[in-house]
């Protein structure tokens, strides 16, 4: 049944991505050039709604989770690779799959690149685990734990900050 929830959530997320036009190459490129913040607004909204939902479910005892170990080395290397790939192909991994679903077959090459990247990652994982993950390792810690506050304080700050950022974008026509 858990897989069904994931499938339904994924379908709705895909619909929202499509409705926000986040699957369009032009939107992706304009976001990279800081000319259109539609994708940034979509991502921040997703983070806020997801944070509220996950923490409400955890506080209600429906689910339990704990943060994964934080490794700055992994975050930096992964972020650079992810960002470079997104900038080069004009799609992030999720939106490339969605674009394929819309019939944009030019994303076959980026998708094949993602699969190849996943294979290379799997093959190099022992080296990554040995040399990259220990760099800047903080163990399992969340932002609220790091700040010493309740998670709802961080979520409230994120929500309010997003609201003001959205207003800023709208005033600038972004």
**Cα separation of the termini:** 41 Å
What's the total number of strands? 2
Shape: globular
Radius of gyration: 18 Å
- The overall average pLDDT, rounded, is 91
Q: SSE order, as H and E?
A: HHHEHHHEHH
Q: Biggest sheet, in brief? A: 2 strands, antiparallel
Amount of helix = over 70%
* Weakly predicted, low-confidence segments: none
* Widest beta sheet: strand line-up: 1-2
- The structural class is mainly alpha
Our count of helices gives: 8
Portion in beta strands = under 5%
Number of discrete domains? 1
Keywords: Membrane, Transmembrane, Transmembrane helix
Transmembrane segments: 38-57, 69-88, 108-128, 149-169
InterPro entries: Sulf_transp_TsuA/YedE (IPR007272)
Describe this structure in words.
- The chain is mostly helical and 174 residues long.
- It has one domain.
- Helix content is 72%, strand content 4%.
- The chain contains 8 helices and 2 strands, in the order H-H-H-E-H-H-H-E-H-H.
- It has helices at residues 2-19, 25-32, 38-59, 72-89, 93-101, 108-132, 143-147, 151-171; strands at 69-71, 137-140.
- A two-stranded antiparallel ribbon has the order 1-2.
- Helix 3 packs antiparallel against helix 8 (151-171) and helix 5 (93-101) runs antiparallel to helix 6.
- It starts with a helix and ends with a helix.
- The model has no long low-confidence stretch (mean pLDDT 91).
Q: Could you provide a short overview of the structure?
A:
By secondary structure, this protein is mainly alpha-helical. It has helices at 2-19, 25-32, 38-59, 72-89, 93-101, 108-132, 143-147, 151-171, and strands at 69-71, 137-140.
